[in-house]
Amino acid sequence: MSTPADSLVDCSRVMVKNDAYGGAGAFATVDIANGELVEKGIVRVLTNCDGNENPYVFTWSDVIPNVTWACGSGCSTFYNTCEEESSNTHMVRDFANNSFVITATKDIKAGDELMHVYKSKKWRTCFGELNEEKK
Hints:
Elements: E1 14-18, E2 24-28, E3 37-46, E4 58-59, E5 69-72, E6 80-81, E7 89-94, E8 99-104, E9 115-116, H1 128-134
Organism: Triparma strigata
Domain SET: 1-119
InterPro entries: SET_dom, SET_dom_sf
């Protein structure tokens, strides 16, 4: 018999709904304490995709400029980005197993938007406007 702990994907503490930016964002459905699991999942590594143009894919390697791109499971692709001080989650990537874990970096209340700093925010062409807004 399988249990929820056996699942490769667990986004049971997260929902996706309209955000303040006119799109969709990930939001906590329950209170989550600093250090606790927010979401875990898997990715599909993509071919024939340029993540410099497509903002909806993950940076899935540490080899720049020959980056591998991936699409994440669950609610992971709906976490919006922010500055480090406003971030309340962090994603750890396991490249070997094509999986990830997102944990809380501070206490999160049910209803809070889940935000993290995109790994490639500073150098991907598609995020240029985010960096321009800071200036």
